[in-house]
Model the fold of this input.
Amino acid sequence: MPLKHFSTLLILPLAFSPVIYLFGRVAGSLEKKNTGPNISRWLLMGVISGGLYALVRLYPVSMAGEKVRATWGTVSFQFDGISLVLIGSTLILGLLSTLYSGRYLAGETGEEKYYALFSILIGSIICLVSAADLFTLWLCFEIMAVSTYTLVAFHRQNAAALEAGVKYLVQSALGSVLVILGIALVFGERGSLALDTLKASGAQTSGLLAAGGLILIGFGIKAAIVPLHTWLPDAHSQAPSGMSAMLSGVVIAAGLTAMLRALSALGVPASVWGCAFLTLGAINMLVGNLLALRQVEVKRMLAYSSISHIGYLLTGLGFALYLGVINGAEGAFFHLMTHAIMKGLAFLAAGAFLFVLLPHDGSHGPLKIKDLQGAAGKYPLAALTFSIALLALGGLPPLAGFMSKWVIFTAGFIAKDGWMTAAAIFMALNSVLSLAYYAPVINRLYQRESSDLVKAGSKIPASLNIPLVILAISTLLIGLYPAILQPIYQLAGKNLLALFF
Amino acid sequence: MPALLTLCTILVPWLGAVAIWMLGDKRQKTVGPVAVTFSVLAALAALCLYPFATAGVVVSIPMGDAFGSLSFRPDGLAALLTVIATVIGSLAVIFSLDYMKGEHQLPRYYSFILLFIGAMAGLVLSSSLLYLFFFWEITALSSYALISFNNDDPKAVRGGIKALIMTQVGGAGLLAGALALFSATGSFEIDQVLANPVAIPAGLLAFAAFGFLVAAAAKSAQFPFQTWLPDAMEAPTPISALIHAATMVNAGVYLLARFYPAFAEVPGWKTAVIAVGVITAFSAALMAIVAGDIKRVLAYSTVSQLGYMVYAIGLGAVEAAQFHLLSHAIFKALLFLSAGAVIHSVGTRDIFRMGGLGKRMPFTRLAFVIGSLALAGIPVLNGFWSKELILEAGMETGPAWGYILMLAGAGLTALYTLRVTWLVFYGKPREDLHVHPAGKAMKTALLPLVIGSIFSWLLVAFVTRVSANTMPYHHMEAMDITTLVQEVIMNPGTLIALAVILAGAGTWLVSQRVRFFEKSLGWAVHSIQASFGMESINDAITRLAGFAGEKLRITQTGLISWNLLYVVIALILACIYLAVGA
Done:
């Protein structure tokens, strides 16, 4: 039975993508305007809900410690705690983001393509985070990348969006090449690509080390590790907001997960990766925060903040791999989930403002922070949810970000290692630094004098508000009672340590 | 019963905050009375809780492996601070009815006050390190939101963000210290640390002790973090009275007092605490002498008085610190609120433009004078007793340099207090200001504080008994009124202190010119007004971060060739690292 649900999860979104496109296209040409995209959207929401149902059925199995394995020929997938975290975040954020995109994209050309690609994106992430051999991992990674190139450049009449898409494509393609070279090296050394066989076999060689470097950098591009992050601010800020939420919330984390899975198979001591992650994490936090400090565009600022949050994840993972502190892995997976919620909320709320303040056709310039001046008077709900997202990202209680960062902090102290303590304190100070760019936005929102754009703005439709409310309430609930997610991130943390030690 | 009351002091204001936010901007008239209702209910709950104070944990909700339990322990110190937070909180809310009349966006104002009151109660009642930090951060959040309540004023926004960032930097010290203690004991329960500090490795204990000192200094605006408090004066005045005088700034003192039994034996810790207290108390008193903004004078005086409490804790006189905390909360709230009545009436905070207001605002003058006398330490007001206790402890157990500076500080306190009172209420009017007397709600809020400033010291027996009974690790002694009176009156130190205080007051009477100190201190004034260079350090750090952010943007070239070059460089570095590291 579990296998059936797992297979459904793997196949459903990918298989339904053409259906979503065809139905949308056909219905759109027969009936009057908007029917086609609506059908596509409802189909996609149905597919995601089906996926969620399968995930809910799989949940008790994976909680019992059982790993479900699906094999077709030489291709195999395995469902464990790490997959659970990533798939859960993807499906939930995907569902809300699809609901949101309906009004957001209404009337644009090629809407049904958006939903079809969205379905591929979700399907590829599900496969990517469950892949049990290196080639499948790479293949799913490529499918994910291809779907996102087009989604980033969805507003293709807009030069900036197109430019962002091309930069993303070029840089990401280079990453893919590096990864496949690395995989080739592994295959040359070991003659196998299955993750568990690889891990069990023999000591490290210089070829495997080189493969490690290639894989680290190749996947590192997707995971936005500094200095490989340069594509991210453009791509995440130019994509349609529903897609920005997905890109920042789960896609970069999926890249990180792919990297972890691949690195775990090389037989290099975990502490080597742990040390690298701690260093890279510190750089990511600092660079992301400093770059965000001077941004004047809302979505660009959020994109830089994602770079710093990848830094927090790397720090947590670094604690876990460097000295085997499980809290680090737990905290990282917890933060991965809360970041998906918080950053998803931030992008969707920013998108809601963008939708009502600027023209709908994607031909407009970016939304500036000063455009939000006084928005709270006219849009109290969006302003409140946006503020909640920003404060949560800044790590203030009683919101989710505080709790997930806390778990990472505990890891930094448990081992009583000077460097780890220093890394944890550095992370705390970075969190403070990030408030220096989140807080002024909130002050802007709650000014009494509103900007001309706000005065002229239209009403925010309910389908945009609903996802905001759901995500904001989740942020608050997790902050007040973090144990809701505890079984999930604990399992993922345990699985990660088992991969490396 | 204590469990229910404990939860009420936190949840009632929080429910009120949510309810008021829901009411929204369209019902500006109703939010005030609703806020008063919720805050008064919370105050009643806290007052009922005080007699039930206990050393045991009354509520404990398990929150998960990495979070310990959400647990509360209303002992003497915690319950007292809860009473202060909720009672002065409700008075500030009542005062706001008049003060904020006609302002916009009132739901946000009242919501955050109520959020703050609940969080402050949670902070002191919490018996878990995590939740101490949790509530600590919520108080910082609400303080930030209220300082920059008037978001259209760039100064208010800057002041709010400055306060947030500086207290958060200190918060990192609390976080680090708390986790160091957690890593040693494996538990988040504070009592576990206090019960057996010897079991904690000395290094970790010292790390936590100094981390907490940094946190306390930032929260209580002590050296070298004192600069945020004067800028926080952009907040509406009831907020200054509640958060930045009577409650939140006490959190640092509370933290040190709470953990004193654990940290007392850490080498150098007590000396460091004493040094922080003395430097702050003395330098802030100097700053108060040359300030020209009525709220800034009071802010420096708050910094200085908090220095006295920190000093007392460094001496081990936790009872004296607790006693002064109570007195100070009452008289400083009184001073701020009456200053608020003045500002609301004349529309300026510049004391050089005021003068002779007393005749036209007699009640406010009475209130301010009582508060001033208590602050200056004139018998028999509450400030006199508690300050004398601290100075006595300093004379008996502290280092001589500390005692002398603190004594001089007491003289300076009398001097600046008299100066501000005189410049505002006495003499001839220097400008033709439009004046109207304080409103009803204002007077209602001021009256209990006037009475408190005169009589609160009579509660000493009750307060110290409750604390002695419920705080097993602090070894406090109950003190009845006669002991207090005897101890203070029979002590030669009291006479010395009174002489210094009178000398300070006399200095003003002799000099009595409007800008006397600004002129006579000459070059030193600028340095004093700039917080002895601490302001420029703050500015330098802010500028450095901004500069780094700006310069780093160069790396974001937007050119694909550069981006790819970064990838290649990163690849080379990664391979070198792996070749060397593995």
Notes: Chain A touches chain B through 77 residues (CB under 8 Å). The mean pLDDT of chain A is 92. Chain A has 20 helices and two strands. The longest strand of chain A covers residues 68-72.
